[in-house]
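Handout, page 2. Input:
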Amino acid sequence: MIDLALNESRKFLHDESQTDWAIPVLFMRTPGGRLFAPNPVIAALRSMAASTAFKPKWQYGFLPLEAVMLTGGQQRSPDWQRIVQQTATRVDLWKQTNDILVNVKSEMTMLAISGDRGTARSTHLRRLVRHTIAQSLNASDQKTVLPIYVDLFDSVKRLGPNADFMTMLVHAMREFWPYKSDNVDKNLVLSMLKDTGTIIRLIIDNLEDLPQQVAAQLIQDIRNLTKDVAGGHQFVIAIGHGGDEYKTLPFTHLLDVQYLSRRRVQRFLRDDICVGDDNDSTGAVINEEAVAIGVRLADALEKTQLFDLAAQPWLLVHMVERAKEEYARLEKHELWPPSRALAAQGRCRRQDPVDTP
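Output:
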């Protein structure tokens, strides 16, 4: 039937006596329902961008976290925690994380983000996922970087304590992979990790929340996986303090999150507590409530000298939330001095929005 239609069309094209002719068009149904399927990596990035999973959960931006950086073999030293304590130089956690990851190297990169509980490492990692998505979708002249966020604690709850890391990785990819998620299996994941067409940025969280035996097995799985990974792919993993099992991972860099200095707490509360979007180049939106809360809390900390408590990221977030409740109560009864809030607005400037635990 198809050949007959094509032959008839050719005959009419070459027949000078025919003034009316037609070209047959063949419509076929493809198995996937699409004749031209978009790039699945780009489709996955768009699916992640539309998801609420990586949206900021706190409306006051990102805390200006600091860290101590170890490289050159120090990060794999048995005494790395002692080295951290003896290192006075601090770096900006967000800037340093991006500086390490932005230049794709020929070898694999494994960055450890260590710290005490409540130092906002989980939110730092989710922020990194969101930032990576935006960069990959907006920068057409660079290699595409696909972030895959694996929450180990949540994966163990869903898949059971005997699930290996590769199974958890496959399930994390399936959540956002386009079309039939059944197409995502271990073979696909391994093929992507052995190829360098798309850079995979594996972001691994909540390892320290697992029982020691389960954590040790997953660390071994991750270590074995790194042997099959092509150069250029990246691992970013949050770890806690203590535990000899961490030392077996081939870290190339380690950033140990520190408590906030008094100067950084003051700068955040008085200047940077704005409502804004991490990827908004136009700047943060000046919010009267946010600025008024920041100024009031900064004044209270100056009066009580409780900066040692505010240095803990989780506790500073809690203080801001309590100040917000106080602001709402005073605003309701019209007891909050409006001139003070308006005067504070001029102090708010654009900074990287703030991280929350």
